[in-house]
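Good morning C.,

I know you're traveling, so I'll keep this short. The sequence:
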Amino acid sequence: MVREPILKPVPLNELHPTQITVGMREVAAKRRHWRARKSDNAAGFLGEHMVPVVLGPQNQHYLIDRHHLARALFDEGVKQVLTTTVSDLSRLDRDAFWLVLDYRGWLHPFDDKGRRCGYSNIPEVIKDLTDDPFRSLAGELRRAGGFAKDSTPFSEFLWADFLRRRLGKATVDAHFDHTIKEALRLARSREADYLPGWCGPVDD
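The tokens, ready to paste straight into the viewer:
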């Protein structure tokens, strides 16, 4: 028997992130998309974009995907979203809970410089997620055909870190559109062939 997912509305300000950063350009794009859909069918949009969560200590909801969407909706004044619970880990203590999330690839404790941080550095609430411009660059690179969408957890953050090591932040901030061309060149090079979704040249 196929079971339908159980959907639960949860206030956005009660969702706990499992990463430190988002790409704010990505967030801005999702805000524009929301505004375009809002006038037509806001409830339908939210119903199509439920967010996956894990239940943690004290039955708190931890967002394990769609951080950009959640932040965009929060910034747009949306009060709650529909969630689907992927796993109930509420019986674990806090230390064990973070270790399990990390082990299962549901956690990305890296800051805007690509440095791994302690679990305590992960913000408590969506509004405190910080900007990583290289995550925005990676998202734009994928849309430009630089790499394929992949199921590897946090794959776009892996691409962001690849780009961070080769491009200057000041250049990305000041000349984002121009930087896409260089990012495309890098993405199609053999330097990037270990990354998920790589679609560079193939030798005959």
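Safe travels,
E.
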